[in-house]
Amino acid sequence: MPFAKTWTEEIVAEWLLLKGYLVKIGLPVGAPSMGGRFEADVVGAKIEANTLKIVHAEVGALAGGQRSVISLQKKFSNSICTTIENYFRKIFAFTQKNVDYKKLYVASFWTKTVINDAKKLGIDVRPLPEFLCKEVLQTIRDWKDNPPYKTKSKGKVIMLPDAYWLLHLIDFLDRNKMLICPQ
């Protein structure tokens, strides 16, 4: 797996991995006419209950206004979403019709107007503090409550896999009451 470009991409990737998704960072999804290529920030996929589940996550700042909405439309265009779906269909040799495609934008800066406009487009924009406190922490807690293996001694705190270094930090801050979550 390539390195994430930002720490927010890394958190999203680790979160998806902990949830059991196959994760791709910087997945190529097209090329502009002037050269280069378009990439999806973080994409996770898994097959569950005969359904191909895809989480397509983009991260960054949404300063507001029409430019942010246009940027969101481009990042989650039908062409890009179809490319991502076809990529995972091929990887999993998935031929059935059942696909659950979730569009997620984790915003390090946002305005309420852009969040409301994104909802109209079917994009779930999550402010970073909300994403960390509701999604990431809950996933860590769920994983620890039901790990894929049992600990060797009773009463010991189960630890996340070593590779999830940012999730380790969030877990540490949470366990030591150093993480303040908005209510």
Mean pLDDT: 91
Please work out how many helical segments DSSP would assign. 6
Q: Give the proportion of residues in helices.
A: 40-55%
Give the end-to-end Cα distance, rounded to a whole number of Å.
35 Å
Strand content: 25-35%
| Count of individual beta strands | 5
- Report the uncertain regions: none
The chain-level structural class is: alpha/beta
Assembly category: single chain
Walk me through the structure.
There is one protein chain. The protein is of the alpha/beta class. It contains 6 helices and 5 strands, in the order αβββααβαβαα. The longest helix has 18 residues, at 128-145. It starts with 6 loop residues before the first helix and ends in an 8-residue tail after the last helix. The model has no long low-confidence stretch (mean pLDDT 91).
Features:
5 strands, 6 helices, alpha/beta, 183 residues, 5-stranded mixed sheet
Walk me through the topology.
Elements: H1 7-18, E1 22-30, E2 38-48, E3 51-61, H2 65-75, H3 78-92, E4 99-109, H4 112-120, E5 124-127, H5 128-145, H6 165-175
Parallel strand pairs: 3-4, 4-5
Antiparallel strand pairs: 1-2, 2-3
